[in-house]
Design brief:
The chain is α/β, with parallel strands linked by helices. Helix content is 33%, strand content 20%. Helix 5 packs across helix 9.
């Protein structure tokens, strides 16, 4: 545990992780100051929390007081190459992520999970499996619950499972997981990074402090990833859909661990090869943690999936609505498009992350008979797909759902799978998904009455 008593700390950004870090550091007797560029009327609830916690703050600016700090905690929404952060570096003021700060006070061994796709499902699965034998285990991070909110409940006999983003990893220093899971690497956040290589480098910072006795679990089917981790000194455990020389693999319909069948895929509630990869990664992690096979299998049989990831919302007039708001990349949309055997109407779009929408044209052509586009990326998406499928534009999600419902045929699936971030129209992907579900449920209520 690092002593922060009487240290002056600036928290940059008053979103979920920033507020959690501020509260944690205040408990540890640091002198905390929160600064956010957003106006006060946009941060009413956050301002109320800070007042109740007696934490000093400013909104609408980053004043010179920001630099009166022994170290700073950076929101994932503020680029590390921004003028503000460059000034902090120039003044030799350390800049850390909330992930780094929380890890200072974590007594539990940490399982850290990253990758371009599948993080939330895998993190949730690992947490469910751990809790069968260690109920006090923590599940937090980029999954929606800030690590700082739970870290003081940690102890040496339980585990902390943390979903980790590339943004958080940019500003780690001593963050040291006992087990690292890297699920895959694919182009993402190219609106943020100068290149795909920069994004990959940020992801691989998760390996920074691994030692020979730590574990690295990774996807052996990902050639780039396999190459990049060659020189990592941790104990390596691999998973594969094809290679039987890995620690765990898929043999037709059986997931085999150390060449013995652990579970048949027909017994797993989650469907699709991507979810079998997630399951195999989770199994390796909890095997390291000592969880018994009986409990692993039970969770796999019962686990329904996570909110906002291919989530069944409702069926109205034999038309099924699916919430896949968590799909913020082209690769996630590709997974969604191959998960259905019946026709799709796709609602997509949002804040463009620089993905190549053309590379899934064949999947759009094979699986989708109409596309409704929303958000800032809709023009780019339309340019990529307009010659293979009818495309509509909509200014709101509610209007997009209405267009989809009116044009749907019996047996269709209406799929919200944006392939974009949400910040042009929504607070986050969860807000987008919940608004979609509210709109659909209002349709269902109207239909029933």
């Amino acid at each position: 545990m690092i002593d922060v008593k009487n240290k002056s700390v600036t928290i940059l950004g008053a979103a979920r992780s920033g507020i959690a870090a501020a509260k944690l550091l205040k408990i540890q007797q640091a002198n905390v100051f929160v600064s956010d560029i957003a106006d006060e009327d946009q941060k009413v609830s956050e301002m109320q929390i800070l007042k109740e916690e007696n934490i000093e703050f400013e909104f609408g600016q980053h004043s010179e007081r920001v630099f009166n700090a022994d170290f700073t905690v950076l929101s994932p929404g503020i680029p590390s190459d921004s003028t503000l952060v460059k000034t902090l570096f120039a003044k030799k003021i350390p800049v850390y992520s909330e992930l780094e700060i929380a890890s200072w006070f974590c007594a539990s061994p940490i399982i850290a999970i990253t990758g371009s796709n599948g993080k939330t499902t895998t993190t949730t699965l690992v947490g469910e499996m751990l809790r069968t034998e260690t109920p006090g285990s923590i599940v937090a991070g980029n999954i929606g619950n800030a690590f700082s909110d739970f870290v003081l409940k940690s102890n040496e006999s339980t585990w902390a499972t943390v979903e980790v983003s590339s943004f958080q990893l940019e500003t780690i220093d001593t963050f040291h997981p006992r087990v690292v899971l890297i699920l895959n690497l694919a182009p993402n956040h190219l609106d943020w990074y100068n290149s795909y290589e920069d994004y990959v480098s940020a992801k691989l910072r998760i390996l920074k402090n691994l030692q020979e006795h730590d574990y690295l679990v990774y996807n052996a089917d990902d050639q780039l990833l396999s190459e990049k981790v060659k020189h990592c000194r941790a104990i390596k455990k691999t998973f594969s859909l094809h290679d039987k020389n890995t620690s765990i693999y898929l043999d037709k319909t059986s997931i085999c661990y150390e060449d013995k069948e652990l579970i048949n895929t027909h017994q797993i509630r989650l469907r699709g090869s991507h979810n079998y990869q997630n399951a195999m990664a989770a199994i390796l992690a909890v095997k390291i943690a000592g969880i018994h096979d009986t409990n692993i299998v039970r969770v796999l049989k019962e686990f329904p999936g996570v909110e906002h990831r291919l989530e069944h919302v409702a069926e109205i007039n034999n038309i099924t609505f699916i919430n896949d708001s968590k799909a913020t990349t082209v690769e996630s949309l590709a997974v969604a498009l191959t998960s259905f055997e019946t026709p799709l109407i796709l609602i997509a779009g949002g804040k463009d992350k620089g993905g190549d929408y053309r590379k899934i044209k064949h999947l759009i052509k094979e699986n989708v008979h109409r596309v409704i586009l929303i958000g800032a990326a809709k023009e780019r998406m339309a340019d990529a797909w307009h010659d293979i499928v009818p495309v509509d534009f909509s200014d709101t999600l509610a209007d997009a759902v209405d267009i989809a419902f009116r044009s749907a045929r019996s047996g269709d699936n209406i799929l919200l799978s944006p392939a974009c971030s949400s910040f042009d129209m929504f607070k986050d992907f969860e807000d987008r998904g919940r608004q979609f579900k509210d709109i659909v449920n209002s349709l269902k209520f109207s239909d029933e009455n």
